[in-house]
Amino acid sequence: MSTLFQGNTCVVGLQWGDEGKGKIVDFLAEHAEVVVRYCGGANAGHTVRIGSEKYATHLLPVGVFRPGVLNLVGNGVVLDPAVLFAEIDEFVGRGVVITPENLKISYKTHLVMPYHMQEDAAREAKGGKSGIGTTKRGIGPTYADKMQRTTALRVADLIHEQNLKSKIEMVVTERNKVLKVLYDMPPLDWREIFETYRDYGRRMAPYVDDVSHLLIQSWKAGKRILFEGAHAVLLDVDHGTYPYVTSSNCSSLGLFTGAGAPPQLVQNYLGIMKAYSTRVGGGPFPTEQDNEIGNYIRERGNEYGTTTRRPRRCGWLDCMALKYSVELCGITAVCITLLDVLSGLDHVKICTGYKHKGVTLDYFRADMDTLADVEPVYEILPGWRGNISGCHKFEELPREAQTYVKRVEQIIGAPIRLVSVGPDRNATILR
Ligand code: IMP
């Protein structure tokens, strides 16, 4: 492994998610001893291929596929216990080892409750076309309760079973009133929810720990730590294309609070970018190609959501947005994924700037009114042909593909050190 990844590394998506972080975290986890999730919940979907087996994770850190790795779920995650246990049961059934020895969950992690999912779905249905286009996993309402405080439930509440009953009774009774008034929903039975979550708590207890403490101890012991970012910079609730974002700080900036780690603990910030752009859900997308180019990318790249199977919106690479993400997150190296998807096109386009009301903008503003109204400025490069998935060295790629990577690197201002040319673990070129 290159000296590039000596020290601890945060892996973060630089676009609107689905950049192929799962594969890269799995690739790097070979040299890691600890893998940590710090944001988001079961709205994430990371895909890992090991031989002929394909796994989709939503909550479990991708390190579970590497024997000897300690996997941590940080306090910044929102945890749906039903999804967690379904994932554990599925993977264990397929021979993956997941025990309280290699998986630890922070007692500070907040819980997704059934009424969060109902509220998410009802809000989206009411919003219609102008809705955010959420994954309906209850993510927004859970983070809202976290900030609200008195209506939130954390993993710690499951462990302190004696208080759980009265808390769930109080919260569900109140929420039933709100959901009735807002969405005319029938009431949920708090006893049923209590019994379900009490049982979740009993099953979860052996996995619950102080993740922040474990992380700091691992750091002191010189262990190699990998932070597995979910979603991406442009979906960050503060720095993304608000309000068309998720509800967590899913840029690299969120790792310090979301995992409970001091800034000095991380030396490398590896940004993952696709060779083109995609997004799911609503919101402006300046380089979107709602045409045969978009369809070509969607079909070749299998651009359908891992979590919801929704077709993703596809378009040319937006280097304005990428430069913003690189600078904001202190990116020290970049991995470009899905370069193979662009093979077969006569030419490829890169967005190098925006025009807004006749004025050229020289940096990306995550401001919806501006973004909805910009005209991308493109640079056109020659395309390349052939299957590049078997290339093991950068120099083996068609010259045009090499030029594409080098030009992107120049514009975004960060070195592209990894090039992923296929879904397999080994289809990764280290430059
Ligand atoms: P939520 O996270 O379910 O609330 O959805 C908010 C927005 O973020 C929607 O546009 C989702 O499609 C998008 N989103 C959330 N997670 C992901 C992801 O992992 N990949 C791509 N889009 C995501």
Question: Could you explain the architecture of this structure?
Answer:
Helix 3 crosses helix 4 (139-148), helix 3 (114-127) runs parallel beside helix 6 and helix 6 crosses helix 7. The chain has 13 helices and 20 strands. Strands 9-7-5-2-10-1-11-15-19-20 form a ten-stranded mixed beta sheet, sandwiched between helices. It starts with 8 loop residues before the first strand and ends with a strand. The protein has 431 residues and is an alpha/beta fold. Residues 16-18, 43-45, 132-135, 137, 139-140, 230-231, 235, 244, 246-247, 280-281 line the site of inosinic acid.
Please give the structural blueprint.
Layout: E1 9-13, H1 21-29, E2 34-37, E3 46-50, E4 53-57, E5 70-73, E6 78-79, H2 81-93, E7 103-106, E8 110-111, H3 114-127, H4 139-148, H5 155-159, H6 161-183, H7 190-204, E9 208-209, H8 211-220, E10 225-228, H9 255-260, E11 268-274, E12 277-279, H10 292-300, E13 313-315, E14 317-318, H11 319-328, E15 333-337, E16 347-356, E17 359-361, H12 368-371, E18 374-382, H13 399-412, E19 416-420, E20 428-430
Helix pairs in contact: 3-4, 3-6, 6-7
| Beta-strand residue percentage | 15-25%
Number of helices: 13
- Multimerization state: single chain
How far from one another are the termini? 11 Å
For the biggest sheet, the summary is: 10 strands, mixed
- List bound small molecules: inosinic acid
Helical fraction equals 25-40%
Structural class: alpha/beta
